[in-house]
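During the reporting period the student researcher (J.K.) took over the structure-prediction task from the postdoctoral fellow and processed the backlog of single-chain submissions. One of the processed entries is reproduced below for the supervisory committee.
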Amino acid sequence: MKKIQNVFAAIKTGLLTKATSITIIGSKAVIDLLKNFETEGLIRGFQIVDLKTSKICVYLKYRQDMTSMLTSIKSISTTKEKIYIKGRLINQIKNPLNMYYITTKVGLQTLSQLKINNKKLQRALGGEVKYIIEFNKVNHNLKELIKK
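J.K. obtained the following structure tokens:
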């Protein structure tokens, strides 16, 4: 889990400094996370640079005006205060502008992955809410039009 925290911190720092790419130390869980980010359109992609040291280059994604695709990355559960969500409440969360990462018995999953798995397995699996990633999907021009 420590490597995942480092990935989130590195991405956050990279976005703040407007870097085009960052280098991180990877693992299987980190690669799964990056694949998910790439599928969701939050990063341009990633490439394994060195197999011996597990270095991965992550290519960050920006809009034309250099605003990030991510609004914020928040770490929710801490060692002092852990936040859990019960399996039966999973389907009640409906916020398309956020991506929730939840640690379950089967590993780190997004909220949408957890909903799909719960339907397939016909059970209500919950877990610890680790991170919330807020998207910057709304067009700024639309925000200005709505205000008028």
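The committee noted the following: The longest helix spans residues 2-16.
J.K. will present the remaining backlog at the next meeting.
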